[in-house]
């Protein structure tokens, strides 16, 4: 597989691993999303100033307001964080 194909496979596997823990197997509960962030993006949470900031991030992942994070919402979050880390945010 190419590097991009490998990256995509890892994204899918990572999401599926955490989504399978509780609730529906194709969405993340708030607890699953928190665990995923804690284990897969620990520097992000360590950089948070307080717990309310972390809760705001978790609530912001649920774009459609159904109290779950689906794969599309997860991928949008990963893409946005990747752009931020690479200094390639949206141009004004």
UniProtKB/TrEMBL annotation:
Q: Which UniProt keywords apply?
A: Calcium, Metal-binding, Repeat
Q: Where is the EF-hand domain?
A: 49-84
Biological processes, Gene Ontology terms: endothelial cell migration
Source organism per entry reads Seriola lalandi dorsalis
Q: Name one GO cellular component term.
A: cytoplasm
Q: Which Pfam family is one of this chain's hits?
A: S_100
Q: For this UniProt entry, which segments traverse the membrane?
A: none
* SMART domains in UniProt: S_100 (SM01394)
Q: What CDD domains is this protein classified in?
A: S-100
Q: Which InterPro entries match?
A: EF-hand-dom_pair (IPR011992), EF_hand_dom (IPR002048), S-100_dom (IPR034325), S100/CaBP7/8-like_CS (IPR001751), S100_Ca-bd_sub (IPR013787)
Can you name this protein? S100 calcium binding protein P
- Gene3D superfamilies on file: EF-hand
Q: Which GO terms describe its molecular function?
A: calcium ion binding; calcium-dependent protein binding; transition metal ion binding
């Amino acid at each position: 597989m190419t590097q991009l194909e490998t990256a995509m496979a890892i994204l899918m596997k990572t999401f599926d691993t955490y989504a399978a823990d509780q609730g529906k197997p194709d969405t993340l509960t708030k607890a699953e999303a928190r665990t995923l962030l804690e284990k897969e993006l620990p520097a992000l949470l360590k950089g948070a100033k307080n717990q309310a900031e972390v809760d705001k991030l978790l609530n912001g992942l649920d774009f459609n307001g159904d109290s779950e994070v689906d794969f599309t919402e997860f991928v949008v979050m990963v893409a946005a964080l990747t752009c931020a880390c690479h200094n390639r945010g949206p141009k004004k």
